[in-house]
Amino acid sequence: MKRMIAAAAVLALAACSTTSPDVISPGDAQRMSTVIDATVLSTRPVVVEGQQSGIGGVSGGVIGGIAGSSVGGRRESVAVGVLGAVAGAVVGNAAERMGTREDAVEILVQLKSGERRAIVQAKGNETLQPGDPVIIVTTGGKVRVTKAPQVTRTP
Questions:
Q1: What pLDDT is recorded for position 57?
Q2: CATH number for the domain that contains residue 120
Q3: Which of 34, 56, 137, 146 has the fewest CB atoms within 10 Å around its CB?
Q4: Which UniProt key words apply to this protein (predicted)?
């Protein structure tokens, strides 16, 4: 039973990964970032495929094996345990892949220099439209796009 709880916890933690522009990893906090001004040319919905680290398959195999081995007598429990482990591994792998899959957006921007860039990030709280002024924030090799803040000049 403890193994089943541990496996479920591992699967839950694997699903917590995100590329959202609204979530900053602890390693990126309190770091200086590079900011570039740009304009949105277009956006389109995309899907960031889920990860398959093997944790889901192993966890599912363990859970399926334990559940299957408790069925029937001594001989049947071994056979059903093996089948349960295989089925659990397949289901666990698929669950991990689907659990880490994200709806995202590909944003095509034009920099002030005229260069164009495409950035894919998970959908955040902001909806970007063509013509929106944005900033591209780069921290530790990771890039995110967000609406540019309104600049008010004092006379």
A1: 54
A2: 2.40.50
A3: 34
A4: Signal
Q: What is the 3-state secondary structure (H, E, C) of the chain?
A: CHHHHHHHHHHHHHCCCCCCCCCCCHHHCCCCCEEEEEEEEEEEEEEECCCCCCHHHHHHHHHHHHHHHCCCCHHHHHHHHHHHHHHHHHHHHHHHHHHCCEEEEEEEEEECCCCEEEEEEECCCCCCCCCCEEEEEEECCEEEEEECCCCCCCC
More reliable by pLDDT, 67 or 104: 104
Write out the two tokens for 127. Answer: 């909806």
pLDDT tens profile 114-136: 999 999 998 888 999 999 999 99
Query: Does 3 fall in a domain?
Result: no
Print the domain residue range for 36.
24-48+102-154
Kindly list the distances between the CA atom of residue 120 and the CA atoms of 4, 43, 117, in Å, as whole numbers in the listed order.
Answer: 36, 10, 10
Count of domains in the chain? 2
Q: With bands split at pLDDT 50, 70 and 90, how would you rate the model's confidence at 59?
A: low
